[in-house]
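Sync notes, pocket subgroup
Present: LS, DG
LS reminded everyone that the earlier model was apo-only. Rerun requested with manganese (II) ion included. Inputs:
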Amino acid sequence: MIIQLKNGITPEQKDEIINKLHSINYSANEVTTQIGSYLIGIGKLNFDIRELGFMPGISDIHIVSDNYKLVSRKWKVSPTMIDLGDGISIGENNFSIMAGPCSIEGEENIQSTLEHLKKNNVRIMRGGVYKPRSSPYSFRGLGLDGLKIWYKLAREAGIKIITEVMQVSQIEPMYDYIDIYQVGARNTQNFNLLDELGKIDKPVMIKRGISGTIDELLYSAEYVFSGGNEKLILCERGIRTYEKASRNTLDLNAIPILKEKTHLPVISDPSHGIGIRDHVLPMSLASIMAGADGIMVEVHQRPEKAYSDGQQTLDYNEAVDLYESARKTYNLRRSL
Ligand code: PEP
Ligand code: MN
């Protein structure tokens, strides 16, 4: 059960509601986000909801049968929009493209990517400065120094930054230089990281775990929301299956299922999802038709020279084709 509290609720009124919940054997979890205050009641529905309905301080009560509550669409039917400022937002009625290299490689790489994105009206640049690599000997990113250069150049270009945060200690130093924290597939169930991201006022995009179920992704989002941050985006990036012909199996099923289960925006990452450059375009279009609110793709001026993930990275010409087809496909879906 989600109890939405009124803005001006007094501490006494809140205590009364909590006592009432305890008296009917419900636990009461207080959640205060940038947008609202809630009490999440967990228990068995064997009481008359009208007993609560009359209590002062309550603006609405929702019975949510899902085990995750705040991210469920069962109480919030209207889709969540994430406003990044400067006219850029993510979610329903907006098609988002996040593009850039797998790893941020240096000033020339940043400048070249920004110019390419600007020319093509792509407003969000992706790229890792902290890279989770399977081998410790692979390139592991430029770190905070690289991020600061990127931030300066991206601000000049009017482009927003999404980049991966790998551990709690990076959250604070990164805060001033990014627009969206990305939680990578290897960290989807790093609950300490999720708890800490709940305490900040910046959007967070959570990728689906490599072997994670759809529900597990929703629970991860619930961690951040219940921690106090409801600026959330979800990302399907492929799961590990028995199939070896592709890097991962982009789970297109997850897109309409997530859109039905949650009010949060859903982004698809076909670059990691299939891992094969030539197939990133069709999988992007398929994701859009399946209901994705946007796509994240890896793009590089010379993919064959990229420090990481070159095999799945588009060159600029391929990327331009993709942006155009993706926008057309989004408009087509909306017109159906
Ligand atoms: C990435 O987007 O840079 C990345 C590492 O993706 P994932 O966490 O999905 O593997
Ligand atoms: Mn990559």
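DG: The first strand starts at residue 2 and ends at 5.
LS: The chain has two domains: 2-62, 82-335.
Action: DG to write up.
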